[in-house]
Amino acid sequence: MMLQSWIDQLKRNGHKVTAPRRKLLQYLDGRDAPFTAEEIYGELSATGVGRATVFRTLKLLQDVGVLVRVHLEHGCQHYQAAPGIPGDTHHHDRIICRECGDIALLDQCPMRSDVSDIARRSGFRIQGHHLDLYGICSSCEELPTKDD
Amino acid sequence: MMLQSWIDQLKRNGHKVTAPRRKLLQYLDGRDAPFTAEEIYGELSATGVGRATVFRTLKLLQDVGVLVRVHLEHGCQHYQAAPGIPGDTHHHDRIICRECGDIALLDQCPMRSDVSDIARRSGFRIQGHHLDLYGICSSCEELPTKDD
DNA sequence: TTGCTTGCAAAAGCTTTGCACCCAC
DNA sequence: GTGGGTGCAAAGCTTTTGCAAGCAA
């Protein structure tokens, strides 16, 4: 679904659409939760894609805005498809499920309108923000609670 | 200032207060911005502290709650003293300077009061959040702008 | 064709582990 | 005195780089 627009995005930036890139994008297309380089390599190596290519492609896809690196509570080498909102590539407030790692995007920024004022008291000029909400998604809420 | 309470925290958890640990805590005490293991090793190695000890101690201090790992835009192996606010160890909204990396804590949570409502539309039950504002601090603002 | 891409393997970082010695309690 | 803690060096992992061969445009 997003596949074609991602491919266009690559072309638009002057990059070739090669087999490994296509495979990586296909993987991305079928996946919503964040993944690590290791995970995707585990998946793609079977089809002959090299480790280095995975890293290079992940970096490339970040550069053209297809991927974003996400910073989870438990580590930060995770990647995820960037939300397809034109002109808004860098503002995606998220909700992350602590059980299953599922991520949803907020349809509305939950920041107060006077954020800049609050910030200015600290002497900062605000340029942007990065917000993750943490909680439990509906699917996990329904499951019998397993404590760990 | 925090030094003594951190030392107590170590003892309370059954750990010894050794010279390297004391040095690391002293470093922490005089520092507010996040630092990496490398930075602190660079600082402490001159006094004879080994690399492994730095990593082991950082992990230990996280375990007892003195340190938290922070997740910055550009990487996540950063550590910082946990805010000494009892019962609020995990809620520190921050402002981070994109120039110098300096970090300030917000004195007020800039989230709207209806966050939970917004989130609930995604089917999530919200437990907490992690917010970083990004911008330019006053010191850097004053410097002649250097583009890179 | 042409130069961007790739896979391999080696290198480079960063973090952990093994081990004998040491010191806070 | 004793067991946890330490420094050193080597090992382990993850990520990057070099290079000749391959392939999309």
CATH fold annotation of the largest domain in chain A? Arc Repressor Mutant, subunit A
What's the number of structural domains of chain A? Answer: 2
Element string of chain A (H = helix, E = strand): HHEHHEEEEHEH
**Structure classification of chain A:** alpha+beta
In percent terms, what proportion of residues of chain A is strand?
15-25%
CATH architecture of the largest domain in chain A: Orthogonal Bundle
Largest interface: A-B, 40 and 39 residues
Helix percent of chain A reads: 25-40%
Total strand segments of chain A: 6
Strand order of the largest sheet of chain A: 1-3-2
Low-confidence stretches of chain A: 85-90
Largest sheet of chain A: 3 strands, antiparallel
CATH superfamily of the largest domain in chain A: Winged helix-like DNA-binding domain superfamily/Winged helix DNA-binding domain
How far do the termini of chain A sit from each other?
A: 37 Å
Number of helices of chain A: 6
Cα radius of gyration of chain A in angstroms: 18 Å
CATH C-level class of the largest domain in chain A: Mainly Alpha
- Assembly state here? homodimer
- Average pLDDT, all residues of chain A: 79
